[in-house]
Task: structure prediction
Amino acid sequence: MYPVSTQLAAFIARTEAFTSDDSSLAGLRQNYDRMCKAFTPPKPKGLQVSDCALGGVGVRSYLPTAEAPAGGLPCLLYMHGGGWVVGGLDSHDFICFELANTLQVLVIAIDYRLAPEHPFPAAYEDCRAVWQAIQAGEGPHAINPQRLAVIGDSAGGNLAAALCMGLRDDGQPLPRAQVLIYPGLGGPADLPSRRDCMDAPLLSTADTDCYLALYLRGTRHPLPYAMPLLARDFSGLPKALIAVAQFDPLRDDGMLYAERLREAGVQTLLYPGKGLVHGCLRARGQVREVDVLYDAVLDYLKREGLTQV
Result:
């Protein structure tokens, strides 16, 4: 039903091999972490990785070998995926390694609180706390605030978009750009991708509904900071790269968000992700079309001055 390449099919099969009969929350998290670890390459030589706290929230910094310029390092603030329920710092080392080493920029990943123990707005507030600590100069390294962007995948893409929206609404400094990779943005249930990709590999429509319900537990009236597509005003937001996956129930969230941003006059680039599935970022170096996605993201960040190479 989903005509993916032979390479991507092999990646999907390898990922699905980590499926367990243990459907408990602890079991889901343990399996996700084991799966992510299996796809994490060795740490690049010379990259300094350290954990600390910013604004009372745990973070991991990835410091490249390049010497910091006089004005401070360009920096990417990374928000990991996992449906707001699974994942953490270890689960997304793989992409933070890549970003920091290839672009020679500082990457700071946020260990935000997870649902359902900590439903909305906990994760959103954690991301804001880290942002504000960086703005206050509390980061572990000198950062150039004019060369600071946010990036996230899946639930992390939601948090990156929500952070931009909240900062705009409060008149605070904004990121230079927002990069959202197959984000879940709270689109309506009747979007075509919910139906067309109902049983897509690695993420089904039922999965997305379950994760969102856990994230919104106890929230009677969801805000745009939980579901950015609920916003009425999309103007004044940072320029954006939005990358979607063709075979993903969340595909139309990203496409609709790109459309809303463009209508509001925000410079927006949409990457259509032909032949891709949700969660494919882990297939770096194994699947040609995933490598092309990485090239698009890295090229965009370079064009936006978020590089030292």
The chain has nine helices and eight strands. The two ends are 42 Å apart (CA to CA).
